[in-house]
Specification:
single chain, alpha/beta, Alkaline Phosphatase, subunit A, 2 domains, seven-stranded mixed β-sheet, two-stranded antiparallel sheet, 12 helices, globular, disordered N terminus
Length: 434
């Protein structure tokens, strides 16, 4: 073997190991020292609002609150929020649908209508934070059954112009993006999977060497981390076999009945991306505001948009529709709980990766039927390294939601005094701080 080929192989192995087990490499190199852990920001976005009467604890525990009940295990690590108004969404001309509010959610600026379509009015907070990150991937914009309408919540500004960032809703492409360095290139990863090989196989010898340098606790963490990645690969194999033969160039087609399965995969890939320190900023958008998706798995017989707007063949009484909307919200809370369990299962020092994260459950509107942009509901989970004081429910009584975005940026270590439309930005929400 020539020196050039040997050098490339060593390079691929080194970069591959770093892509797969970077936190454990750091642990091996800093044995005996106090480790600092990175902070992460995750936005979990769901359309069409919620039923605030079944969401707000009002002196009850999570277990006694229907929509929050699936999150009961994380009540001590959570802040439930209401009373924040998306005041920037009231700036004239006020749009009449969901699309602009998808942008407003994280930009706190009114969207701009051009030729019948909407464009973001500025940078979103996730990208504001991502610009300061030094990870291989600045951020990930994930989706489940994304679309061109209401299918974007993240935006960047370049050349004086803001533009939305499309979501990645294909778990095969996402896995290839995350593990391309391990295999040498994205198609290399696809070939590995087609041959039923794991990315772990590529650097198995290096992983063995690394394990020898770790203490027992970190070896256990490494093993659990690799098991999680292998489980993801097996799930992808099962999905590929059910949907289509291997074809690196084929577009993945998502049918409604596989919506929960794809969402589960996207969340597990998100946890893997954060654990490998591929990125520290992730947004995940479930469906969209005009979704025709029927949440049959939540025992709801009509589309999400239809039950929220009493349209698309839905004509049941309002109490029936509100019950269905509550069931949909309960289901999304249970999905969020899966993501939180994944983050909370990864130990970091005296806490977990969830403790070093800020996970925000957000909606583009408080109530989809009326397009309500006031009294917005949020759940914030994780203290982001001790920045937020959790275990509380806070009603802000009509404060602009700009302050929440400022607080998220500051929690991530990105010093920010104002964000979004300056007419409504008055600094961070001091009530959230520890």
């Amino acid at each position: 073997m020539t020196a050039a080929k040997l050098g490339r192989r060593r390079f691929v192995r080194a970069t591959g190991l770093a892509a797969l087990a970077l936190p454990f490499l750091r642990a091996a190199r800093t044995r005996g020292q106090t480790l600092s852990f990175p902070k992460r920001l995750v936005v979990f976005a769901v359309p069409n609002g919620t039923r605030i009467e079944n969401f707000w604890p009002a002196g009850r525990t999570f277990a006694e609150t229907r929509i929050l009940a699936p999150l009961s295990a994380f009540e001590p690590k959570s802040i439930v929020i209401r009373g924040l108004d998306m005041r920037s969404a009231a700036v004239e001309p006020v749009p009449r649908d969901h699309w602009p509010d998808n942008y407003n959610m994280l930009t706190a600026r009114q969207a701009i209508e051009i030729d019948g379509g909407f464009h973001p009015g500025g940078v979103s907070v996730d990208q504001h934070v991502a610009d300061r990150m030094t990870t291989p991937l600045k951020s990930l914009q994930l989706g489940v059954q994304g679309s061109s309408y209401c299918g974007t919540i993240s935006s960047r500004v370049e050349g004086g112009r803001a533009f939305g960032l499309a979501v990645q809703d294909n778990p095969f492409d996402l896995a290839a993006d995350l593990f391309a360095d391990v295999a040498g290139d994205p198609l290399g990863y696809e070939r590995l999977r087609a041959e039923r090989q794991s990315v772990i196989d590529v650097v198995r010898a290096d992983l063995g060497d690394l394990a020898c340098k770790l203490d027992r606790s970190d070896r256990y963490k490494l093993d659990a981390h690799l098991t999680a990645i292998r489980d993801i690969e097996l799930s992808l194999d099962s999905l590929r076999s059910a949907c289509a033969p291997f074809d690196p160039g084929a577009r993945f087609s998502l049918t409604d009945e596989r919506f929960p399965e794809i969402g589960d995969l996207q969340m597990r890939l998100a946890v893997a991306a954060l654990a490998c320190d591929r990125t520290r900023v992730i947004t995940m958008l479930w469906s969209n505001g005009s979704s025709t998706l029927e949440h049959a798995w939540a025992d709801v017989p009509y589309s999400h948009h239809g039950i929220s707007h009493n349209s698309e063949g839905v004509s049941e009484p309002v109490d029936v529709r509100h019950e269905w909307l509550t069931r949909v919200s309960e289901w999304y809370a249970a999905e969020l709980a899966k993501l939180l369990r994944g983050l909370d299962a990864i130990p970091e020092g005296d806490g977990t990766m969830l403790d070093n994260s800020a996970v925000l459950w957000a909606h583009e509107q408080a109530d989809g039927a009326t397009h309500q942009r006031t009294d917005m509901p949020y759940v914030l989970v994780g203290s982001c390294g001790g920045y937020f004081r959790t275990g509380r429910a806070i009603d802000f009584g009509g404060v602009a939601h700009n302050g929440l975005l400022v607080s998220l940026a500051n929690a991530m270590g990105v010093e920010t005094t104002d964000f979004g439309d300056p007419s409504f930005s008055g600094g961070p929400l001091s009530e959230l701080v520890a």
